[in-house]
Amino acid sequence: TELYKGVLERQKGKDKFFDEIINLEPFDYFNAASFYSRSFTEERLFYYSVFGGSPFYNSLINPGKNFVQNLKDLLLYHDAPLRNTIKSQLNEAFAKKYEADELLVILAEMKFARYGELKTEFKNRSLSGDFDYTLNKLIELGIIEKKAPLHYENDKKKFFYLFADSLYEFFYSWVFKQTEDDVLTEEIDKTYESKIKKGFEEEFFPRRLHFIAMEFIKREGKKGKFKEDILQVAPFFSNPRSLEWDGTIVAETLSGNYYVVLNTAKQQLDKKKVDSLVNFDLRRI
User: Fold this and answer.
1) Number of other CB atoms surrounding residue 11 within 10 Å
2) pLDDT tens digits for 12-53?
3) How far is Cα 78 from Cα 214, in angstroms, rounded to an integer?
4) Which residues, at least 6 apart from 84, have a Cβ–Cβ distance to it below 8 Å?
5) Which candidate, 80, 135, 66, 68, places its Cα nearest to that of 106?
6) How far apart are CA 19 and CA 21, in angstroms?
């Protein structure tokens, strides 16, 4: 595509032994989805929620299989390539991989946490490793990131930590303690249905939809289409019990106004101001 071509042109190396050096940053959802095969376009939100915008992760997806089978093939089975990628990266980075595993499990359970909260829980679990080294190394590896809430970028007391890599977040939330390397394939299939599927659909996926909604707002903000500061963003489900999402998101601004944003799945902004998010009817907007 033109996007890849442009990256290649900018990243060409000067060394005579290399024609090209590629340094691709992860794509946001709206760019990543454009590379998805038609074979799994309908599940693109599921794919992005786990594999994110990493060109490497997405290159391994088999378009001839559905989302669940790709998830098992790439991450759940004992010889799955992305499972091995996670293990190899941590084995190379840590003398005690166990400490890194446990810190990532803690963060997965907490979703996000401030420094003191993470450190206290690390010690409460009788982990004797160097907490600061482990945390900083995971940040250096791009697995964890340190962030500030919107509008508090300069307040160090409000900084918190969360996963920077959705694949690691999913693995340590729902896979790491549910599947072992020596478990048979048929047992993995049963484990997915009994212990992973519900957590993914009801907890992990909705949280990732919130992330995608924020990505869209950031895109539009850079174009100057939002004049007010955005306080929070969330996907909107006309039926909260259903996972069917038409791309509609809602945004609350710092001034207290609410907006309904339509057609984000098509990258089209149709912003309508509403007085409240309670009981409003999308069909009237």
Assistant:
1) 12
2) 444 444 454 455 678 888 788 777 777 666 788 889 999 998
3) 34
4) none
5) 135
6) 7
Give the separation between CA 92 and CA 133, rounded to whole angstroms: 15
Give the predicted TM-score (pTM) of the model. Answer: 0.74
Q: How many CB atoms lie within 10 A of CB 18?
A: 9
Estimate to the nearest angstrom the gap between the alpha carbon of 263 and the chain centroid: 21
CB atoms within 10 A of CB 102: 20
Q: Is the four-CA dihedral 132, 136, 138, 139 of positive or negative sign?
A: positive
Tell me the pLDDT tens digit for each residue of 142-181: 999 988 765 556 666 678 899 999 999 999 999 988 877 6
CB atoms within 10 A of CB 241: 7
Report the distance separating Cα 104 and Cα 233, nearest Å: 26
Beta partners for residue 120, in sequence order: none
